[in-house]
Write a structure and sequence with these properties.
This protein is of the alpha/beta class and 613 residues long. 34% of the residues lie in helices and 20% in strands. It has 19 helices and 23 strands.
Amino acid sequence: MIAKIAVSAARFSIDKPYSYRFGEEMALSPGIRVMVPFGTGNRRTEGVVLSLEQGDESGLKAVLQKLDEEPLLTEGMLRLAAFLRERYFCTFLDAVRCMIPAPLWFKSMERFSLAEGCPWEGKATRQPDAPAVLEFLESLGGTADSGQLRELIPEEERRDKVLKYLLNKKWITTESDFLRRTGDKSERIATLAASAEEALAFAASRPKGAAMQKAVLELLCSVGSAAVKDICYYTGASAQTVKRLETLGYVTISDRPVLRCREIVPAKLDGPLVLNEEQQTAFDGLRTQADREKPGVALLYGVTGSGKTSVYLKLIENVLEAGKSAMLLVPEIALTPQLLSVLAAYFGDQVALLHSSLSAGERADQWKRLKNGDAKVAVGTRSAVFAPCQNLGLIILDEEQEHSYRSEQAPRYAAKEVAIWRGNQENALVLLGSATPSVETMYRAKKGDYRLYELSRRFGGRSLPRVEIVDMRQELKNGNDSPFSDFLLDAMRDNLQRGDQTILFLNRRGNSRALVCVDCRKSPECPRCSNRLTFHSANSRLMCHYCGHSQRVVQRCPDCGGPLKPLGVGTQKIQEALEFEFPDTEVLRMDADTVSAVNTHEKLLDRFKNEKI
């Protein structure tokens, strides 16, 4: 048999399916990842099986190893990867990697071994580090991995030079192993291996010193099986006690996979979801469109507060009743907690969350739930457009005009384009929702390429909020050089007196936009991407928000020696100004610098909700 395989070592210019032979006992199928030799040096590299065919196998290299037991990618996902490659000029494996959570990727681990029958002792070497490496390998039994050699020679350039020298001399050999970046989580399960009567009789015959064994057997006689950690918790026994019972033949211990899923607290519902007349009209039209053989694309254009989310919920409910799955994309992670609570209230554990703030294990397990069909509703940010939903019937992009739906890393895909292509391939309705749709989306809706549905009134007949635009130049002329206008300060004071809360939005984190020299007007720039460095007062550093470069704040201009002055305002400076204006009031800042694995969006929003920030 011949397998057509896309390999990770191929650059874009030579990225194509390569033919490899394999035996029937390997049982390959499209979507399975394999290890294959590639290039003149037969370097081990990862690949994905694209198709299988019969043909002449002479002269073909053999597949070395099967990395997945079951296909990780469906035929639809392989077609999607091919679309990404052609549309966004990336290799096939780059496209595959953006579709699969990072924990499911493999990392290459190189192993170096002493060559058999090669007498190196006493021979002169041109590399001063070569004897040390050879002696190190010999001390470890002849083999060491790249991590161990990194400890011996920390400098990468020096280490690569000596290893290349030894490989050319054929004094050492190398091979690559592929390891999963994150393993599956599992727990130990103890199951009663004998009848309850036999186990209880054995427990009764045990001496007083074996009281823990008796307690474990009595518990298992009542429940049959339980996690070892739970058995130890309820009986006070140790894991060694359970292990001893396994040796005696009364208990069997096995591993059971455990999904790492963050608990979702459902929102409290006032009652069943009821749509108003406009919402019902839009829903009826969208439901009819979704039932077509080729549903196409629709735009739900509704003013802020018109109840677009209620229409989304009704559509998802309709899709689930039809036995299909749905996908809901939002532009920012901060939008997911409250939305997720509402979805959990309506659809329970059928909801799976996909975004970059999840831990590696959580993201992988949520992805598996969708692939296995245990979850039917995928909610997340841009990358959730690749969710492996089974029998997809609906894709929703909320706030479709947001620029965050475009990836800034290769492959630089646009989630809206991918969603429309995927909807067309899988016969799913693609719904774009917004109060301020992009020009091209509205143009296509007006032209008739997309179906247009409108919600012109706010839900419940509420009026739109009053907006005041303040000229900050006039504030400066009046002697106010604060980041807040007098109008805003008065409004915040009134809010505090009434016991209300205030939210201030600013689209720049850090203290100041930049530090500018008073004399020459130049500001420190990033040495890697030439953007102005943003001043962060919390750690007294200048940081690049594009590539992550960081350096200490300098007091004088590096060009002319003049004094540096902060220019512009960031969220850190706003927080400092608020704490100065309202010293007895608690202020909470939520931006990329304060949100972390511990202080999640959910925790910060809950503090704002419950502690009256």
